[in-house]
Amino acid sequence: MAKPLCSIAALAQSLGKSEQDLNLIYAIDRASARFRAAVGHNVTKETKTLILDPPAGETLLLPVKGLAELSVKLGGIKLEHVTYSPRTGALRRYGGWGTELGTIEVTFTAGSDEVPADIEDAVAEQAASIYATLSTPGVQQISQGVRSITFGTASTVGTTQRWTEAVERHRLDGQGIL
Fold this sequence. Notes:
The protein has helices at about 10-15, 20-40, 115-135, 160-170; strands at about 45-50, 60, 65-75, 75-80, 85, 90, 105-110, 140-145, 145-150. By secondary structure, it is of the alpha+beta class. The strands form three sheets. A four-stranded antiparallel β-sheet has the order 1-7-3-4, with no helix packed on it. A hairpin with a 4-residue loop joins strand 5 and strand 6 (about 90). Helix 2 packs across helix 3 (about 115-135).
């Protein structure tokens, strides 16, 4: 399980709940996963290796920006002469990348050591909303005598302005900055 994007202790205290409350832990896990999916990256520091196919030209766009460490291999051989743009996530190799599929191996470390405050706040709000939904389930079945009616409950959790702004600031589509 990935590191939560908000403090379990702080949210438990603000809701008057236990840090061991399984619904609270689940809500924080779900809110963190939703935020990561919305922004397209892990947020917290991680090291990852990708196997990529070569682009048509000299520039390969990585699915991440703001790398702390970068290592590139082509056909198993470490490349020393590549240019990386932290602003765009572009990796350039003069002369191209070849034509064989699956021959580019990129290992990188990216993300923050600490969760930015705006992300922590947005995820805490979302987790509180998910927790409230889990804590108050809807009516699923009504029985009277031999008759019974069962219905599905579809509880949804919306997003707040704080969530929308944090996603906009941190997403990886050229709008956010890592």
